[in-house]
Structures are given as C-alpha cells and as structure tokens.
Write a structure and sequence with these properties.
Length: 705
Amino acid sequence: MLYSLITSWLSRVIFVLFGLALFAPEIAIAQDGSPIRHCGQWKMEQAFFNAHPEQRAIAEQADARLEWETRNFLDANRDELIVIPVVFHVIHYNGPENISDEQVLSGIEVMNRDFRKLNPDADDVISEFEGIAADSEIEFRLAQIDPQGDCHTGINRIVSPLTYDGGGEVKDLIQWPRNSYLNIWVVEDANGAAGYSLYPGSVNGAQGAGNDGIVVAHDYTGNIGTSNNYRSRTLTHEAGHWMNLRHLWGNSNSPGDSENCDMDDQVSDTPVTSGWTSCNVNGSTCGSLDNVQNYMEYSYCGRMFSEGQRTRMRAAMNSGVAQRNQLWTPENLEETGVNLEPILCEARFGASRQTICVGDTVQFFDDSYHGVTGWAWEFGDGNSANDQNPLHTFDEPGNYDVTLTVSNGGNEVSLTELGFIQVLDPDGMSLPFTENFEAEELDDNWFMVDVSNDGDGWEVTSVAGYTGEQSLRIHNWSNNVEFNRDQLISQAMDMSEAELIQVTYKWAYCYKGNNEDEDDTDDRLKVYASPNCGETWSLRRMHRGFTDLPSAPPHPFVFTPNGQDEWNSYVLEIPYSQFYTENFRIMFEFESRLGNNIFLDDINITAYTASDLLELELGEGVDFEVYPNPAQDEATVSFSTRLMYQTMDIAFMDLTGRTLWSQTQRNVIPGLHLVDLPIVEWSAGTYLVSVVLDGRRFTKQLVIQ
C-alpha cells in the first residue's frame, strides 16, 4: 500500500512538472532586472484545438495548402508594399493597462521599423547573417474608418475584468472583421504570456475567424509608458506568427530542448537550433551558428527577419488562408482609410483633472483626429489658447464650459463640453460638518465616482439608517465584478487653521454566508485624505472583510442591518500638518471582493484649532490613566495626546513628592503612549504617578497591594 501511494505521488509530481514545462510561459530575468514573459502561441493554439476538436483537421488542411503555396510562391511583385490595416482594442479595468494613444502609436512604430529593416539596431546584426537580413516590405497602419464606414482613431477602449485573464474570451468583447483589419487586443495579462497569436492555418474557416488576431500584454506594447525598449519587440514576434512564421526551433514553446534539433521552422536560411532565452550571438546548438538575433527567437535581442522569412510572410499575405489576401487590396485600404489623406473628423479632448480648487492648474489634452494642424481653445472664463495641449489656471469657483475648435488648414470642427471643469470653493463646506443622508439625494457636498464604470455605486437608501431613516448603500450582493471600486468624495474644506482633523463615521456590513468559515471574501472600506483638492490621495484607514469590516453576524442572504447594534463606528484622527490646507478633501472608497452589501452613515468632520486641543487636553476629559489600579506586580501609564510636545516626563513618586523613578521622552507625537512602571521594586502603599508635557502636569494616584 505504502509503495503504491509513493509511486502514485511521484507520478503526479512528474506529470505536474511535465505540464509546467509544456504549458507554462517561461519566466526569465530581463537585462533591466525585471521578470520577462515569452510567447504563448503554442499553448493557446493547443487550448483552441482542445476546445474545438473539429478545427484541428481544418487547420491541418489549411497548413498543407499554405505550405504548398509557400514552396511555389514567386514574389513577382517583390517591391510591392503590403499595407495591413490595424485596430487596437485596449481592454482595461481602469488600471495601468489602459495605455495611452501615444504608447499604442509607439507599438505601431516599432513594428514598422522592424518589418522594414529601419530599426536603429539593424547594424548590430553579426556579419554571418547581415547579408540575409531582410526588408519585408510590410507595413502596419492604424485604421481611420471603422466597419460602419465612420471616421475612427483605430483605437477602441473597453472596460472589462477580462483584461486580467487575456484568454480567448477577451476577443468576444470586440472584434472587427478579420478580412479588413488586423485585430490587436491589449490586456493586463495575456494569459500568462507576453503575447500570443495563432497561425493563419489554425484560424482558417468560420470557427477560426473569431480567434484570429494578436493578444499582447500592455507592458510589452511599444517602447514608452508601461513598456520599454527591451520588451518592445513582442508585437513584431507575434505578427510574425500571424503571418505563418514559426519559432526558429520549430512549432513548440520549449526553447533549449535538444530534441528541437530534429525540428524545423520551414525556412531554409534560418539554421536549425534548439532555441535561446539569452543573447549568445556565438551560440551553436545543433552543429551550426544559430541566428540568435532573429525576431522569432526568445533571446530578447531580435534585430532581423531573414530573406526566407520575408518570403514566407509575403506568401501568407497572398494566400486566401484566413483571408489574409483580402486585407491589403486597394479596395480594403480605401475602405479602412489607411491609404487616404488624413480625414479631419472629430474634435475631442481630455484634461488632467476635471474637479479642482481655486488657483489650481489643469493640463488639457487634444485627442482630435485626423491631420489636425490648428487648435483654438475657450476655457469658459474669458481666456483662450492656441496650443495643442495647453495649461490653464482657474481663479474663481464655478462650473466652466470648455470648447475646442480644430482645423487642418481647410476645414474645422468643434466640440463644447458643458460644465467640463468644476472649480470648488473651499468655503463651500462649513465646519464642523455633519452628514446623516436624510435628504432624498446627495447634495453638492458630495461626489460619487464609479471607478469601474459598472453602473452601480453608492446610493441613498431608506431601508436602514443609524441615525434617522436613511443611509448610503452599495448593493454589493448582486455584484459579479471583482475589484469593483466606488468612491464618495467630499467638497473642499478649509483646514488651514487646524491642528487636528477628526473624521467619524459608521458602517454596517457582514459576511456573505452562514458563518465566517464559509465566506472568503475580503471586501474593503478605505478612507483617503487629500491636502490638494484631490490631486493626490493618502490612505488613512482601511477596514477589511477579514478583520474589522464585519459589524453583524454572517448572513446567507442580502444584508440589511437590523438595529444600531449591527453597525460599527470609527474615529479617524489626522494629526499631520501637511493636511492642514485650505483645499482638504476626504474620500470613502469601497472595493468589492464579491461579498455582501455595505451601508455608510453619520459622517462627521471636525477641525480642531490649537486652542481647541489645549482646552481638550487640560479639561476634565483628558485621556490619562494608570492601570490596573490597585496593582500588584505591574502597572501601565496610558496617555493620549492630540498635540505635539517637545518633552514628556513620567515620574513615580511617594506621597511626599519624592521621585522614586522617572523617564523622559522627547519630540512626542500626537497619539497614544504606553509606558510600563517597574512597581515590583516598591512595597505596598499609595503612590503618585505624574506626566508632565512641556511643563503641564497631570497626576494620578496608584495603589500597590
């Protein structure tokens, strides 16, 4: 029995290790020290065939046809430029994967340099291969016209959590016809790889059409923004697969395997190799010098395509397999707009911030297209500008309409956004402030932001309230989008005279299940503060589902608090001078992990001045205790201060005032201070404990038994 268990365990380990070697993307370390990912082509192709077994036979027939066409391909029009219309679909969840238009354009630029042998490092190809380094005469251009015939940027942006997976399902979100456009999906995680694409033969036919195109991780797209030069050739590599190029070691995802010497990439001028994940240009793995600098290697030092690869790609683009030959017909280039003069279609703009305070400066961005040569801005406050991306300062509170008119020397188009900039008045939210949400709707003191753009968020509800009949609620029970974020942001408040900011609030929440062990959700309520009107935010408190967020017993149903005993409360104190500004704001953010409903009520915001705090600390309610009292072997001094002090002197004395023990602390920050007293050294009796803060004395009696 023991033997069988051991052998069974070993076989499972071997199977797992084999599977990891076979399917997991290879992780290495880049030159810049960051982990790198490789191509997921082979893994995703096998997953596609496993999901659609009938496609394997279709692919085999298409591959055979394409190989025959490639062997017999005569590039009669060798100098004819092949232009491929491209559309990028940026799939994001409001994170860094939502890359800029500029980063997308840099991805196109890198591809075109590589395919046209215009890459600056082309001169670095070693002498043994420089003679076969090829200009493929293939270019990629962003579409200017969409499938409906409307003017377009060639860049779509779709909000979806599928960006974190990047599998085949991401293509179902949006896909333009593959016989008119090369679809490229930019995601946060390309199914664990840097990117992937399937061969033309693999996606031939109607079933394969929905899986055609390239999926690439955002940080492997272009050479700016979230990516860099070192990772910028991923699109070049995947476009090679899309045009029927194999890895140099053959059709697998296992570079370095000695068995690869028995495989081939079907290209005559690329030597047989076992494959590389490092850049050894002198490497020879199968009896001849390897073309380590080829874009279809894993070496991350790609510099070239070969003449043989050029022929193979151009043969694929002339084939009807996967409709590649339809992409670059004159008719399609006209219909997608890539062969037209830039078409002035639409004025469009954005801004670094839309909600600001008096005296803040906004960076405006022109996103208009195409062929814009002139700009005329109107900011709604009587000022204007003619720069493409101007800076503008707003000096008065109010809501401002912004207009942009763009021109191309002959035509012009305009866009006006009403109330585009909101300038807050720091005196608009008087202190102390109290909010119990008893009005039917939120007033102007609050802004609700649906960060994840899912259509749900904070709402006034009358089903429960701690004080009164109403509160705020997020109906998280029905939410099926993990990491959903919804924000409640205050108006600006003048805290310039504050020495302490205090925010109190109450909330109700419970686990989604019959008991705590049943629920594994870690929903989070976060509280942020901003000293600069929301330009930057600092996390001041986080309540987590695994710790202090639950206020009521678990409920296996939609949660609504039943009475005040099912609410929690918290006092948040902000004793830091960097927040004592005239443009202070507070933000409550709920981040969903697919748990239960949450309720928020009774928000109170108070600014204490120095005199307020001094009165508090010198008054009856000063927080100074000695415990336990009476004590035997140990005792602790507990003192909470709201002010900053240069010194705190703690003394243990007898009733005559003679000091038996003392301790001094310097630069005492606001907060709770605990000091243990060595009372085991003294006999039973009554003593005095004194705390002196910058000359102000507080005294308690302590009885030792």
